[in-house]
Design a protein that fits this description.
6-stranded mixed sheet; two-stranded antiparallel ribbon; about 15% strand
Length: about 230
């Protein structure tokens, strides 16, 4: 009887883990993929066959800024990449140098950030950049003394819409998994263009499975429930 109870307990623990653990690592691609089903009776992704909802690692974009800006311009014109701020958009359609709207001067956007744009677009993501330089101030919000934001030096990007899903306003399962997939691909980018920071607390509400996909920080970072911050 005790042996049967022990077996039953182990079975229940495995079942619970398979439901609450949202990440499965593909043996084929090495990329973690989202188990988007969660329902006990629904089919689950087969790790041996790759992820059904996350693309395999793509070709690394070159570091040629002229070529990168040309590709980004194409993505802007076909609606794959959009920008909330005209100064950010105009820089991507031009020479990659943004005129600050707060303070004075211009800043050149990090080549790695440009490569990230091209990489993520090539992975099939459509996204809106809510702020690159935009109207960002020099200091990280709430920092005292001033801690300079990665945005101020052209190394920060905020994404607030992915594949037509707004982060924060759309909390459907599909929207939540789109956010997670985006962060998973960011985490699995080739080392050469891998971000130093990936920050998001959840899709409108704090989500532990989203927090687990952050990079360069631990726990909840205030003000990151409506966008993904990508820092280099």
């Amino acid at each position: 009887m005790r042996k049967k109870l022990n077996i039953l307990f182990i079975f229940l623990m495995i079942s619970v883990f398979s439901i609450i653990n949202p990440l499965i690592v593909s043996a084929q691609t090495g990329i973690a993929c989202i188990d988007v089903y969660f329902d006990p009776g629904a089919p689950k992704p087969d790790p041996a066959e790759g992820c059904p909802d996350v693309a395999a690692p793509g070709e690394i974009p070159s570091a040629d800024r002229t070529a990168l800006l040309q590709q980004i311009s194409t993505f802007i014109n076909n609606g794959t990449i959009s920008f909330s701020h005209d100064n950010d958009k105009n820089a991507m359609l031009g020479n990659g140098i943004v005129q600050r709207r707060v303070g004075t001067g211009t800043v050149e956007i990090s080549t790695k950030a440009l490569r990230m744009y091209v990489y993520m677009a090539n992975q099939g993501f459509k996204f809106n950049v809510s702020s690159m330089i935009g109207g960002h101030s020099r200091c990280v919000k709430g920092s005292s003394p001033c801690r300079e934001s990665a945005h101020w030096s052209g190394r920060g990007v905020d994404i607030n819409n992915i594949n037509d899903f707004d982060i924060d306003t759309n909390r459907s399962r599909e929207s939540q998994n789109t956010l997670k997939n985006f962060m998973i691909v960011l985490n699995n980018m080739p080392t050469e263009i891998s971000p130093r920071q990936i920050i998001c607390s959840g899709n409108g509400v704090v989500d532990s499975s989203v927090l687990a996909l952050q990079k360069g920080v631990s726990g909840i970072v205030d003000g990151h429930l409506d966008h993904v911050h990508i820092g280099y």
